[in-house]
Write a structure and sequence with these properties.
There is one protein chain. By secondary structure, the chain is an alpha/beta fold. The chain is built from 10 helices and 14 strands. It has an 8-stranded mixed sheet, with helices on both faces. Strand 12 and strand 13 (about 240) form a beta hairpin. Helix 6 (about 240-255) crosses helix 7 and helix 6 crosses helix 8.
Length: about 325
């Protein structure tokens, strides 16, 4: 079937990117932890009519963050990138294999991480499990390079079945979905409200959509009804996903203050940045160029590239989880 993509993710809101570039040299804080593994997916859809500019940059940035700040061994990070080697192209088959690699061999005590930067969309719900009447989908590279077969898409039901349902107790999985219509991309049971007194609302029954005891948190680029943005407004030199940049900034701001980032602080700071009103601590971190270095941009500061106010986006990042927990606790990435 043909897919009518509704507000396909990361529609460009700024000048064209200047090139993908590479990662800056990584300074690792602490010893690599062999019990941490990650899958990073960045799809620019190069050469297609739906090409993006910032997804590969996001992938390289997140890889640098995981190695430098969260002690992920580089050899434990699988990357499916476009542009990139054909053997690791982010096709549907390779993405499914990557997801199965990430969770299928997981052992108690492991910490897992998944980052996706690319196109997302909504399609009609076929099995009646969505109150909205729509399923969220990821769009692999071969959807646009092939004949746009509906079966090439990866539905939220499939993601929940592969990643969420089988994950056992004593395993943590953190997920970033920087794409359009990503609010409930994993169909996790609980949604963050933003209220510290009542931080969670229930979306689905845990026995139908929850894990087998594993702790799972999804950070989403926007609400289900919204689109996420691809922009060079933050770096001036390279395009990035607005959500990925804001996530890295939120994490680095906490570390710069000598604090551990918490789930609540990450969400609040991401929303501050995307709304165009970063805190003073976030602005200091921006001026120091820490986030820019993750994108392979060295020399000068954010301030010298910023022509005025921070750009404002309408997308609202979301957070959902497999279980209710204290959102003021340090993030367990």
């Amino acid at each position: 079937r043909q897919l009518a993509v509704m507000g396909c993710c990361l529609g460009s809101t700024a000048a064209p990117r200047t090139g993908a570039g590479g990662s800056a040299p990584v300074h690792v804080v602490g010893e690599p932890n062999p019990r941490k593994r990650a899958l990073i997916i960045g799809i620019n859809y190069a050469g297609t009519e739906k090409s993006l500019d910032g997804c590969l940059n996001d992938a390289l940035c997140i890889k640098t963050l995981l190695i430098s700040k969260f002690q992920y061994p580089e050899q434990n990070i699988m990357c499916l990138l476009n542009p990139g080697p054909a053997s690791n192209a982010p096709t549907r088959a390779n993405i499914i294999k990557g997801l199965q690699w990430l969770v299928g061999q997981a052992q108690p005590g492991e910490q897992l991480f998944l980052h996706y930067s690319g196109h997302g969309a909504l399609v009609a719900d076929r099995d009646g499990d969505e109150t909205s009447g729509q399923d969220n989908v990821l769009i692999p590279l071969d959807y646009f390079t092939g004949d746009r077969d509906f079966n090439t898409l990866i539905l939220d039901d499939e993601l929940n079945r592969i990643l969420i349902r089988p994950l056992p107790k004593d395993i943590n999985l953190h997920i970033i979905m920087d794409c359009c219509h990503s609010g409930t991309m994993l169909d996790l049971p609980f949604d963050w409200t933003g209220n510290l007194q009542q931080p969670w609302s229930r979306l689905y029954r845990p026995d139908s959509k929850g894990s087998a005891g594993g702790f799972i948190v999804e950070f989403s680029g926007c609400l289900d009804s919204q689109t996420s943005n691809d922009t060079n407004a933050y770096t001036r030199l390279k395009t990035s996903g607005a959500m990925t940049f804001s996530f890295v900034l939120a994490v680095e701001t906490a570390f710069a203050q000598g604090q551990q980032p918490t789930y609540h602080s990450i969400m609040v700071n991401m929303r501050q940045m995307l709304s165009g009103s970063p805190t003073e601590a976030m602005q200091r971190c921006l001026r120091a160029g820490v986030v820019l270095s993750h994108y392979g941009i060295e020399g000068g500061s954010y301030a010298t590239r910023n022509t005025g106010a921070v750009m404002q986006f309408s997308q609202i990042p979301a957070m959902s989880a497999s279980m209710q927990f204290d959102v003021t606790s340090p993030v367990g990435i």
